[in-house]
Amino acid sequence: CGSKENEPEPKLYDRMGGLKGVEGFVDVLMANVAAETNTSNSSMLRTHTPLLTDADVPARLARLRNNFINQMGEATGGPLKYTGMTMLSAHKGMMITEKEWSVWRQAADASMATNNIGAKERAELAKILDDMKDATVGH
Ligand code: HEM
């Protein structure tokens, strides 16, 4: 009794707080990116202009949020299923730069901090994002 050694660790999804946790992470990340694109010398405005100039921005943002939540929910081991584009096709043609990537990643790190995600969980989530870098940057 008392030993937890043989108990499987709960999935990252559950350790992040399940659906509410994933939604919190995505919503604050999107808010951080939106705040960044509001500045005149924004690093991410170039890539986000097509989205921001769409006649139906709310629908476009809602679709992005939904896809992003499903993608993170699936990647963290939760019951969600991502049905959006591959990371390569989603970002193809944007020619995302290292600088843009690092600003986006800082927005993600800031969201993890705002959501009080634990240090271990932050590292695991960061790895999930960093593993997607090659498919996202420079295409
Ligand atoms: C690991 C990092 C990233 C992840 C997981 C991610 C995830 C996604 C997802 C799930 C979509 C929607 C795909 C679909 O509609 O089927 C998307 C689209 C998009 N992403 Fe990313 N992304 C990442 C990095 C970036 C970076 C660094 C930028 C720009 C600096 C960026 C800009 C965009 C833009 C502008 C769209 C298009 C939205 C639209 O057209 O409605 N992404 N991304």
Defining traits:
single chain, 139 residues, mainly alpha, Globin-like, globular, binds protoporphyrin IX containing FE
The chain-level structural class is mainly alpha
| Ligands bound to this protein structure | protoporphyrin IX containing FE
| End-to-end distance | 54 Å
CATH homology superfamily name: Globins
CATH third-level topology: Globin-like
> Please, how many helices?
8
Q: Can you give the mean pLDDT? A: 96
Number of strands: 0
* % residues in beta strands: under 5%
What is the H/E string?
Answer: HHHHHHHH
Catalogue the unreliable spans: none
Helix content: 55-70%
Largest sheet: none
Radius of gyration: 16 Å
What is the CATH class?
Mainly Alpha
CATH architectural group: Orthogonal Bundle
**Number of spatially distinct domains:** 1
Overall shape: it is globular
